[in-house]
Each structure stands twice: as structure tokens, then as C-alpha cells.
Amino acid sequence: MEYGILSIVPPVVAILLALFTKQVFLSLILGIFSGCLILTGGQFFAALNMTLEEVVAIFSEAWITKTIIFSFLVGGLITVISASGGVQGFINYLTKKKKLIKNKRGALFLAYVIGLVIFIESSITSLVAGTVARPLTDKYNVSREKLAYVCDSTSAPVCALIPLNGWGAMLMGVIGVQITNGVVNGSAANLLIRSIPFQFYSIIAILAVAYYIITENDWGPMKKAEKRAAERGLVLREGATPMVAEEATATPPKEGVKPNKWNMILPLLVLIAMMPVGLYLTGEGNLLQGSGSTSVFWAVITAVSFAGFLYVWGKIMTLKEYIDYVYQGIGAIVPVAILLISAFTIGNVISDLQTGEFMASLVAGRVNGSFGPAIVFLLAAVMAFATGTSWGTFGIMMPIGIQMAVAMGAPLTITIGAVISGGIMGDHCSPISDTTIISSMASASDHIDHVNTQLPYALLNGLMALILYLLAGIIV
Predict the structure, then answer these.
(1) Where are the domains of the chain?
(2) Where is the Na+/H+ antiporter NhaC-like C-terminal domain positioned along the sequence (predicted)?
(3) Start-to-end Cα distance in the chain
(4) For the whole model, what pTM was predicted?
């Protein structure tokens, strides 16, 4: 059944309520309910029951369940690393011993470099960058909104630009289907690699982060947030709700423990190293064919286990203390997990309503080939904003974009780059995006404050990318 214009009601309800009420969970639930109301033909009690059933049903998706468990375990890992004195030891090393981090610019650059270097998986990139840099950015009165922006605007873009990860596997998969179906010829890997120079938004986003760190020329809501933090020392807005409980994210070292940077570095190295190992094993020898969700799942379990062995064997804490700290961290992640569950659920409801297909139908067959990449970029951005998922957008828009490019005679590799860039841009702007939620979690920022401060930057970057797609479509 086609729902037409009604298919965009759930995302519109969720997004508007989130922006106006600042209650993300309530907004997502009401968005889910409105979608179920449409799916059940306006039957209130049937829609209420369906809402509950949809929440339960997401756990049938293995990758979603793994992502949620991953979030819980990362919370435990963050807390136990902090309690071991690892974070404090790393801060002391950078600020006192080596004196590498001397100001807010240096603290933000640390998060930026981590975001560029760890291109294995966007969630890991954000979480590691935020966890490591947050104590330093707090020390130099950097707003949590600015840290969240750095984490968010480096994670997904760099994962798309260096596709030796789950992102690459997913993108090659959706491109490969079009090759198998005879829509286009060639190799999925070759087409993806050739599209990298045309992922304009991703490239601009990464360069923009460096520009704002170096120049400190912030504007809009971000400027107000930075001014508040600099003048009043309030890294969080008064009344703001950090995505992770402060008692977990700022866990002091266990009494009597000597701060040691290796207590943080070693578990994180295990976390990062296990990701390509997981991709290699799940891809049966091919990193690009591996399962991203499974690899992330294995990586965090291995890192948590290694940390326990390291701390208990090194007599930093007893086994009971280690377990207690892990439980404390898991407990702090419960609000984040609830939001992720809600975000995934509304994504499924939107899929049932065929929101993406309806939006794509608005322009299919109605545009000139030279404008194809720009139109595809805009459509992917709007779709990702409305659905809250870049990967979901890739799954819907890549086939549509490739088929539109072939039908209109638009440049294929530019169109593929436009789909990827549009998906990431819309995801950066959306308050119901799971990756935006994770970036808020990584920086312990108020989620809506993160969305409000990042949105103007993402829109400006998107405008520049749109202009480049218009020019590229005409010139190439």
C-alpha cells in the first residue's frame, strides 16, 4: 500500500517535537505512534499495540541488538578506564610531562586527529575521540557542543572517505546489486573508489572542522556556547542534560591508584585493533566484505575483557571492583540505549511507510541529467534528515541514484558521491539520527544543544557541496 504524503508525517512529528520540546525520547515515541496510527488506518488502540510491538521487533535485527549491547559495554569500558587512572594519566602525560596540550585549540585538535586516524567505524571514532579529549576540553573551558561537533563531523565523513571498514562493505554491497542487475557495468570497489573525490560534503566537513579549531571563528549558536564556556566556565548550558551521566563520564581514579596513561591506551588499542581483525574474519579474508556490526561487537567485548585482565592482574582493582565499575558504566548508558532503540524503531516504521520511495518519486524522471548529482544530493540529505539514518538512505537512494544517473545521462561516479555525501549531511542535521545521538553521548553533551549548534555549520557545508555538484554535473 502506498501512503503518499502521509509517509512523511512520523519523521516530521518526531523532528519538530524534538526541536521544540527538547525531549528526544518522547518525540521519537510520538513519531513512532503517529506512523503506527497511519499503518493501522487510524485505529488508536491497534496503533498503541503496534507501537509496543515495533519496539520489541527491532531486537530481531542482529545488527541493532549488537549496536545496543556495544553501547552498554562502551559505557562500562569508559567508566572502568577512568577508575583505573588511565584517563588522568593520559591527561597528565599530555599536559604536564610532554606539555603537548597547552590550550583549547590543542585539546580540540586531539579529538580531531583521533577522528581522522580511527576510520574503522563511526561509533568507535566518536566514542574514542570524545572519551579521550573530554577531560582536556573541559579543563580549557571548551563547550561540550564544540567537542560534539568535532566528534560528529569527523567520524562518518572519514569512514566514508576511507572505506576500509563496514561502511565500505555496505556501500559496495548496494552498488554491487545494481551491477548484478545489469543497470551498470564494472566493479563495485572501483566505482566506490572513483566516487571518493566527489564526496564533496564529507571533504568540506572535515576541512571545516580544522578551520574552526584553528581560527576559533565560531558563529551562530556555537559562538554563544563557546562564549558561555569561556566566560563562565560552563561547558554545559545551565539546565542542559548530558547524554551520559556525569558520575559515569567523570569517574575519578580509584582511591590509592597512581594515574598511568597505559591503563587507557592499551584497552583502546585492543578496541581499535580488533575491528580490522573482525572485518577480516567475518569477510573470510576480505576486509571490505566483513560485517561492521559484528566486528564492533567483538572489538568492544575483547577490549572490556582485556581491561579486566589488565587491572585485576596488575592489582589496580579487585575483580569485584572491576565488575562494579562496569555495571556503573552500563547503568549510565541506559538513557542513550533507550534513545537508540527509539531511533531504530522509527526507522523501521518509516521503512514500512515507504517514506524514502515517496520522496524519491517526487523528482524521478523530472530533472535534466546535468542537474542529476545536485538533485540526488539534496534528496539524500532530506531523506537522511527525515529518517535519521545515513545507511538507510544509502540503501534506498543508491539504487535510485544510479538508475536516475543512467536514465538521465548524469555522471555516475559523481552521483554515487552525491548519495554518500547527502546521506551524511542529512544525518548530521537530524535530531533523530543514531550517529548524532552517539556523538552527543561521546562528548556528554545535551543532545538538542549539539544538534542546534552543529546544524548551521552542516547547512553551510551542504550549500558549498551543492554548488560543487551543480558545477561538476555541468562540467563533467
Answers:
(1) 60-165+218-229+241-345
(2) 158-474
(3) 40
(4) 0.77
